[in-house]
């Protein structure tokens, strides 16, 4: 059985994962609107991945006889000045998620909740990958600056991202 404190914290993270999904879906919609289909594809794939993360937390709570409590999700931004600003916002968002996961992991340790600690290690490792991937894209965007040819090439590259399969994480 999971402690009340850990149950509440995991429900907060479940909500944060849905908020992340909502943010990435908004980013995908923005990219579609400005005709950057590869960027939109990448963001939509990220949206699907965030939903899979939420599914993992939902299952963990149920497996531990916890109670899932769904909360409202605030509307995300809907417009960005450039592809670079879009990915800079994504990186800042991922850094915030990393902080949330680290706090959850510390709570699991403090609560002596070994099952949740082990479960959360997957998310700790995932956040390292998430931040690195977005930082790499930001690096490429800074290299090409506002070059339409460079943006076109990055758009083509981002279109190659494999879509996340449900529960593949």
Helical residue percent band: over 70%
CATH topology: Ferritin
State the CATH superfamily name: Ferritin, core subunit, four-helix bundle
Which regions contain 5 or more consecutive residues with pLDDT less than 50? none
Number of domains: 1
Describe this structure in words.
The longest helix has 31 residues. Helix content is 75%, strand content 0%. The chain has 169 residues and is an all-alpha fold. The protein contains 5 helices and no strands. The protein has a single domain, classed as Ferritin, core subunit, four-helix bundle (Ferritin, Up-down Bundle), CATH 1.20.1260.10.
Question: What descriptive keywords fit this protein?
Answer:
Ferritin, 169 residues, mainly alpha
Short description:
By secondary structure, this protein is mainly α.
SSE layout:
Layout: H1 4-33, H2 37-63, H3 83-110, H4 114-144, H5 148-158
Helix pairs in contact: 1-2, 1-3, 2-5, 3-4, 4-5
């Amino acid at each position: 059985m999971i402690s009340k404190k850990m149950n509440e914290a995991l429900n907060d993270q479940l909500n944060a994962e849905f908020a992340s999904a909502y943010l990435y879906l908004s980013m995908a919609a923005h990219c579609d609107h400005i005709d950057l289909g590869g960027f939109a594809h990448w963001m939509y794939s990220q949206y699907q991945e965030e939903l899979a993360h939420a599914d993992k937390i939902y299952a963990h709570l149920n497996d531990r006889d916890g109670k899932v409590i769904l909360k409202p999700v605030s509307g995300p931004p809907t417009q960005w000045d450039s592809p670079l600003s879009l990915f800079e916002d994504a990186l800042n968002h991922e850094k915030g998620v990393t902080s949330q996961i680290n706090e959850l992991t510390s709570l699991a340790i403090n609560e002596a909740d070994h099952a949740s600690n082990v479960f959360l290690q997957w998310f700790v490792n995932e956040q390292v990958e998430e931040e690195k991937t977005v930082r790499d894209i930001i690096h490429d965007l800074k290299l090409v600056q506002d070059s339409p040819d460079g943006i076109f090439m990055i758009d083509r590259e981002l279109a190659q991202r494999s879509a996340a399969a449900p529960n593949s994480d």
